[in-house]
Specification:
The protein has 195 residues and is of the alpha+beta class. It contains nine helices and five strands. The chain has a five-stranded mixed beta barrel. Helix 7 packs antiparallel against helix 8.
Length: 195
Amino acid sequence: MIAHLRGKLLAKHPNQVIVETGGVGYDVTITVPTFSDLPALGDDVALHVHTHVREDLIALYGFLRPAEKQLFEKLITVSGIGPKLAITILSGMAADEMVGAIRGNDVARLTRIPGIGKKTAERMVLELRDKLPAPGMPATSIPVTSAIEEDVLSALVNLGYQRPAAEKALAAVAKGGNAQSFDHMFRSVLSRLSK
């Protein structure tokens, strides 16, 4: 799975960029806020990427900020919201405003986003209200510091573990000084999660 992409910005449009890395141009779908903050063509860019795999498609969704990627990943867990609609939602409202609207049960504000009806907005509130950080809190409750920890967390999420539980177990293992290698840390966190 592609989780991060760094390379030269070959093309940019309000909903798409092409980033060249190692001689390969990756077509990445982006949000309008990400487009607004992109550097000039030809400059280097780094995107946090969500790889979405279906039977007939592999699509990349890119974000400049990790918090926006995490919100995207939470949105696509809501029934009725796929990646394309999640990109539209994140283009229609700033991420921190959306978190406030969902936590504040502000269905009327959410329905102002194109493509979001009352039922979808209600589902967003119902399914995400308790999964989003409180305003002013960082997007992840436990900061991931090293590349190994990020890899371990990514592997656990890909295996189906809930991100908050994986972060908590990872923090406990990291605090205990068990961070020699990916294998060792992964096994330690896995054994903690299976208790």
